[in-house]
Each structure stands twice: as C-alpha cells, then as structure tokens.
Amino acid sequence: MDDFEIFSGLSVAQIRRFCRSSQRFGSEEPWEWLLDEDLFGVKDYRTGVTGWCTVTGARGTDYGLQIFLGDRGFWNRLDVEIGRDVDYPEVFVDIDALMFSFVSKEEITEREKAALEEFLGSDGIAIHGEKYWLWARRLQPWFYPRPITADECGFLCDVMQQACVVAKRVSKNCSLTLNREDGSFLVRTKGTESSRGSWKDSWEWPQAYVKPRAEAKYNQKKISKALKKAHATEESWDIDTFPVLIPIWSRRGLYFPRTVLVLNSDSSSIVYTDVVEPDERDWTGVLNIILEAMAQTLSIPKIIRVRDDTLYNILSPLKDVLGFGLKRVEMMPFMDAAIKVITDVLGPET
Hints:
Elements: H1 12-28, E1 40-43, E2 50-56, E3 64-69, H2 70-81, H3 90-93, E4 97-103, H4 110-120, E5 125-127, E6 130-139, H5 150-170, E7 185-189, E8 200-204, H6 220-229, E9 231-232, E10 236-243, E11 248-250, E12 253-255, E13 258-264, E14 270-276, H7 284-297, E15 299-300, E16 303-306, H8 309-315, H9 319-322, E17 325-328, H10 333-346
Parallel strand pairs: 1-7, 9-15, 10-16, 16-17
Antiparallel strand pairs: 1-2, 2-3, 3-4, 4-6, 5-6, 7-8, 10-13, 11-12, 13-14
C-alpha cells in the first residue's frame, strides 16, 4: 500500500476514514450552501494551526476543498482571490495548503485508482450522476505538491466533517461565517482527539504574515574571484529571482528552482542566469550566482538595480567591496517581459 502515491505512509484505518469522509462530504454536497468565496476556519488540534477553508463546486464543477494553513495561508488565499500578481509565478509556489478534489479517473494514476477501488468499489463516488475519484495533496512553498501525511489526512477528514456542519448552518444563516461587528471569521475548534463531538465556535482574524528575514554567507574566495577576473564597467544590471515550474529532485523532495536572472538595464539583453535550490532563510546560493555572473562576464557593473528587499539586503555589504552602486526600484518592465517569456517556454504545459 505504501507504493500508492495518494496513500503513502497511511495505515489501512486512515485510508478507510479518508474514503468514508470523502463519501460523506460528496453526498452532503456542502457546495450547495457554501460559495467558493465563503471562508471559515478549522483549528488543527494536533498543531494548533488554523486551516482557512473554502469549499469549491458551487458553480457545478471542480468539487472539493481548499485548506490554506495558518496566517501565511490566509494571505496566500487573499492574493490568489483578488488576482494580485497572478501573472507572476511566485504567487503560486508560495502557497501553503492542503488541497482535496473529486476528479475524473484520467486525473489520477492507475495505482491510485486501484487503491481507491479497494475502499470505494469500481464506480468511485457519484455526484450529480457523474463518477468521481479522490485527489489530495499538500502544497508547501516552493515544493511540488506531495502526498498527504497521516496527520494531514486526519486534519483533512476533520475539515470535511466540519465543512458539512458549517454548510447546514449556513443554509439557515447565510452570514454565519463572518462576524459583521469586527470582521472576524468563524473558526471551529476542539480540545483533543479524544473529545469527540466537542467542536465549538470561536472567532479569529489572521495576523499579518511577515516572511522570515533571509541572510547570506559571504564566501571570500568567490568575492576574490570576482575582483580578480572582473573589472569596473559602465553597465547597469537589473537582477531579480523567480521560480520556474519544472520540478527538480533533491533529498528534501521535488522543488521548483529559484532562477536568478541578470539583465543589461539598457539593452534588456540577458547577461547571466542560473538556478538554485530555494531556501527562504538562506540566500547564499543566489548571492554566489551573482558573484559568478561578474566573474564569467568579466564585468562589475556601475549600477545594480533590484526591486526585491532581500536582494537589496544581501548585496548591500558588497557595494564598497566590489565598487558598484545599488538602487532599489519599483518597476522593471523589461524584467517582467523576460520572466514571462522564460516561464511560458519552460513552464508546465497547459
């Protein structure tokens, strides 16, 4: 059973609960009362993290459940919902969530289908006369969607149950999930796993999420190499980073590489580019690519322009050492155009 992607690491009892919860969720059709825009919370008693939940399917398609995790997940969802920077791929690789969907048999592997048949039968789950199968994945920032763990499966089952409870209550009170006095959201909570049936209402407003401050280690050999090989020029460089949605394998799992792109500010031509395994707290790899760009092109630009605070912070200590100016800008139209071309060419097929 461990070979099945959707069930990797789950016990038979956990798989059975997942399938039963999915059947109940599908049969009760909470999307009849909850719109895609409706939001409510369910607190995971295992971790203390609130999952911000959206039931999908009110439009008659894409039946399922999205659970955005914690304060970060809440603001992820808001970014996607209002369309903020939707053309910029980092919005999507930044998502921290659990996703569950009813899908056609073509959207799962043969091994997943065979495993599900053991618990659901050969017909899957019927919704409005159509046959569906189950798909569940964990989305973590910068990583390819992976199978859910045992604890994540348990939380997903809890949320399915609570989504049905909330939907029934919304059918009688359409404003249930939002506190009109202070704008807080309904959050369903309970004490421990043993306190079955003790779910209660609470009200929360997510805190502002601030990404952890990234730092970089300064490799004196790489700095010396850039000083030795490169010379000062009148060039101006634009530098930015972005994800390419082609997963690469590492010991930590399948990840989307962070691409470092260096453009000539005047000609908009590509000066240098390379990829690195992303680490939100450690940008040493990004810094080393920039130093290598100087060594390979034999050029230390007169000005480096960036729009990312982290890039500005990690390059600032090198301004005087290498002799370049550093400027923070709001807009980089040539950079945006180059990123779009690269991601269109290298991104996943649609």
